[in-house]
Amino acid sequence: MNTFTRSSLFILAALMVFAAIALLYNSPVISGQKAVSQPDIINYKGSAQEMYDYRQQTGEETYWSNAMFGGMPTYQTGAKYSGHWIKKLDETLRFLPRPADYMFLMFSGFFMLGLVLFRNWKYAFLGACLFAMCSYFFQLYEAGHNSKVHAIAYFAPLTAGVILIYRKKYILGFILTALFMALQLVANHPQMTYYLGLALVIYVVLQAIESVKTKQTKSFVISSAVALFAVILGLGMNASSALATYQYGQSSTRGNNDISLFQNQNQTGLNKDYITHWSYGKLETLNLFIPNFMGGSSVSPPEYKQHTQASLSRAQSPEEYEYFAGIVDYLPTYWGQQPFTGGPAYQGAVVILLFILGMFLVKGKMKWWLVLATILSIFLAWGKNMMWLTDIFIDYFPMYDKFRAVSSILVIAEFTMPLLAVWAVYAFFTDSSLNVEYKKKVLIYAGGGTVVLLLIFWMFGKSLFGFSNDFDQQLPPYLREGLIKDRWELFQKDSLRSLMFVILALGLLFAFIFNKIKQKEIVIFGLALLTIIDLWGVGKRYFNDENYISKQYVDNPFPTELGERLHTEAQANPILMPIAYRVQKNKLLSDLKKEDPSYYRVFDFAGNPFNDASTSYFLPSIGGYHGAKLQNYQNIIDIYLAQDTVLQKSLGIARKEQQILAMLNTKYYIVNGQRGEELIPNPTAMGNAWFVKDMVSVADANEAIVSIGKVNLQNEAVVLQKDGFKTQFHKDSLSNIELVSYAPNRLEYKSQNSGEGFAVFSEIYYKDGWNAYIDGQPAEIFQTNYVLRGLKIPAGNHQIVFEFKPQIIETGKMLTLGSNLIFILICLGGLFALWKNNPNISPKKTL
Predict the structure, then answer these.
(1) What pLDDT is stored for residue 847 in this prediction?
(2) What gap in Å lies between CA 650 and CA 645, rounded to an integer?
(3) Nearest CA to 72 among 590, 627, 611?
């Protein structure tokens, strides 16, 4: 058996091990009877149901849905695009059941990067184990942030392609870069892609500096051109989705805002306070090393709060005891600065140790790239806690202000730290310039220093850290003392835990140095095993078998009957409780849909309407759940529906919520009644469309959004002066317009009016894609009442049709097809050239 065949078999075996680990961790999916319950995916199912129904009924795709927030494009809610072949490849790569598929991609993607860097499957295997099981990824699985973890899984292979290009392996590097750039975009999480881009920019800058020093700028320019073309081609293979998303982004909350009525408002992107709301604390960064440094997650299990429970015996009265006994389970052991967290971004004790060793063992620009990218990631994750740097990026780095939750940029550190960690092991065993004495010094001083630091934390942490935050000051002293003691014990236990893993890892390295272990493979796989044991244990704290429920409730998380099985299982598993709790509302909405099949909207006063898409599963909703709503609709929410009475009074539009809901054709309200949730008809709903008589022309969007709270919207329409409207149109008692046919992307009306009229439609205005026709002839759609559509309609009887046919989809379709063909031709030509010349396609030279 030759070397190539043997290596291929080991690579295949490694991939099988990764699949086995992914399935074993997620063992409930093996039976096919259970699936993971993810809150974000439940909301996604609600928001996308109208699109799914239309697809199933017609076999066609709709790029607009009225299911939530009055109506919005489906580009970010699961739309499919013609010719999107790369999506099919992605689905093939994710052949395991979810979320084992994502975990397998994490392992195998980093494994590919390791093969490119080290040309040795053993180091690649270790690197994959160091990366793929970071505890943050398990929290993403639990929450349902699938697109985020999907994008992260493609970080490593995309980086591998870029590195190959700059090593002058142009053909293979180009193919990998274009391919995995395309797959990265399929994951559809621009924020993660952007963050990886920042890290790769640092790599390219270091390459540029070296090229100047070595007088190889021509080679650098060629490599950069090849890399840029590969990225553009990867983008082209996703042209339909990328162009549609970009176009939509201009009108969304990530784009420009046409009003300026809010304090501390950012006109071109998200508000700075919103961007930095989730900022990692500086001290909290030590979570990377000690999982319960900050107390874990905001929702802690009862066993974490034994001292807090015991402290209740010191309550001053039975009433005080009863009150605080009822809230103890909700008191967070987490004491960091974030408003809420699902858990720490624990990287692993072994990973951190090896990363520290790597700063002394690894040489060259690779080390500096990984160290600088890690530092930048941590500093930017601090957000408002290092505002001078955050301000620079928000103000001067394109698109940085489009993304919220800056703490999530720690994903770059969670990628670069394992990479330097495995590189440290590679250098330890293969770098002949590192003599034994130097390695001993590194292990003694860097490794020993790490041990000493953990010992100090373990022994004296209670004196070093407060284990308290501002929230605790609201608690009585005895309860606060109990909570602090619980946090201290969690910290101490995990400090000792990390210490043990560090000592074991150092022990393996020292044993090799002193010839107690003869084979380096024992050390490599020993480190991999320690890492898996470490991260498996912490991961199970946040994502475990309890997160799996019967597959029928995952496939349909909106049941309308509380059967005995659901009732029993919900009592045993709190994750099922929200599904069971919604049954009454689901039944109301399901029955309403049958009883009143007309087209209207529903507003949920009983829940959290703008963070819940369950209503949208059944009927079009005023609310919903999405991170990038249309900006004009968000402004309506903020000014009229969020009940900001201070702002409303300052604008002279207090208590106008009902008028706005009526304008949006809100025909029913969900409210809390004596027997739970109830439906109440809204007699003021204005219907699908209506004629108005008087036109109120305003100068700009500020005046428009305020004016709709001051005029009689049944008889008046607020329009922009630039559209040049006359002051009145015809309207009499016989003027009528009604909806006769409804589909999410096509609405047909018939109208009757004895004079030229102006009709307002209770449909959300969106300029890119909606076309109007009167008796088959194109008609101009006017932005009306700030957020709705309006049409001038000639006298007489007419057929009016709105159709959503965005040209950007057709343009993207052609670009996608062309890019696919170019990529295939380049792959065939490149692979033929490689075969003909028989070059060694693996890089021989490390950075």
Answers:
(1) 35
(2) 8
(3) 627
